Amino acid sequence: MTDIYGILQDTFGKTAFRTHQEEIIQDILGPSKRDLLVLMPTGGGKSLCYQLSAVASPGWTLVISPLIALIWDQIDDLKKHGLEAAYWRSDLTNDERAKIHEGLSTGQMKILYTTPEMMATSLQLTALVKKAYDSETGPTGPAGPAGPAGSTGVTGVPTGGLDRIVIDEAHCVSNWGHEFRESYLELTRLKRHYPGIQLVAFTATATPEVQMDIIRILGLCNSVRVYRQSYVRENLHYLVRSRDRVNMFTTIHRWIRDNDYLRRTGIIYCLSRSDCENTCVELRKKGLSVEYFHAQIPTAQKKQIQQRWIEGKTKIIVATIAFALGINKSNVRFVIHCALPKSIEGYYQETGRAGRDGRTSRCLLLYSRQDKHILQSMARKTVTGTGTGPSLLNPVKRVEDMYTYASDRLDCRVQSLCRYLGENLSYQCGNCDNCTGTNSYGKEKSIIKYVESLRSFFTRHMASHPETLPTKADLLRELSVCAVNLSTADRQRLIYELIVRNYLDIQTGLDSDNNITSQCHWNYGKALDPSLMMLLPDNSVTDYFEIAIRPQTGASV
Fold first, then answer.
1. Pick from 345, 322, 85, 142: nearest CA to 231
2. Is the pTM higher than 0.85?
């Protein structure tokens, strides 16, 4: 049996695995070669799972990633550990291609990185992968003869053979997701061209619908196993504030100063390149160590800026959302968003770049109602009909969901993030602005009449449609009638409250036609508690929505 602990310590210099890493690696290396879908939050250690597995395997691993900065960062890190890896790209020289071929065929190189675009367009890469696949399975398929490679390992894969294909940022394959990329649709052919190959898909964020879409589109089979790690990052403290455009730079500087972050590492995200540059200029005037970073900066200059930040020579980077994807920097103490992000998934990933070392870090979001209108207008202009799932509704709705999260002054921020991503927490973080009472606008109110109405609805539905279970949309329609005094957001909150209290369960899956379904189950075994209460907006507040977006006075940012 492979000594993965020995490899962990001797090769990677680590003494212990993080949550789920050991189980995932053992599953990857197992004799069944099952497909895996791994959901692991930013900083959870995804890369070690496939890197260590590659080292422990006789052949080599192909890693497909859309993040070029991540690819180079991981190759540099692997070289520091004495491991050879390469990036297959369009500008390779003949000598570089020959070196890759030699490294893979001799077993000296264990990992080859590339992008989904290269997988779709490079005939030379396709030929390389096909040859390595055939050396494992033989041209006639899994039962055919092994190819003419070197020694054979315990799994039967010869040196130089293709062990598996890893797909990073797998949510990009789904138009249900927040970062759909058309190039990822080319990956649907992997299972057709390489039947029996092990696919391991990784992503940091995926709603239940996106998870099912990934499985369906990539054709994950062979008793696919899904690993889900909690989205909770206990060391991150979330704060949300209405943005005062006139005093925004003073607000940011004061917040950084008051939290003793003047000499600490941070990231400030802006929506546009011009906002990045302007914010950088204004914060420099206030004495902060800051540079800006966006797509229009020449590549060589971007690498220099990034390196200065990694080395701590520059403390703060003001950037568009592309910055820091895949960069392994553990001591980021704060992340600030100067405007509303485009989605909760993106916001979670971006804030997740703070506090990877486990120390307390803070995430500040500054937003306005105008942000929502701008982002939704952009979404309507840029949406395409390509891909799977609703193509117009999702980008616009994701902005609405993000705005609902930002303007919520009742719920624990961590609870809200997790439940959106499909994890229902029964406890509050105790550290966000809502938990600490700085945004308290609610009261505990009885919800028993709404719960009784939903239970009656379930009974009627199952009597008239015993072959089908109601969907979440069915529940919301019922609440629009029986809970007309509640806002749409509060009806959603009510459903999640019932899930947490074990009255209701919602299961997402694929039906016989491979379509995504969301079915609701009522727990009739649990008696209704007549004293059921839930935090709802306080009627004494003149206008809850306006309070939610109005700048607060007297509250510390």
1. 345
2. no
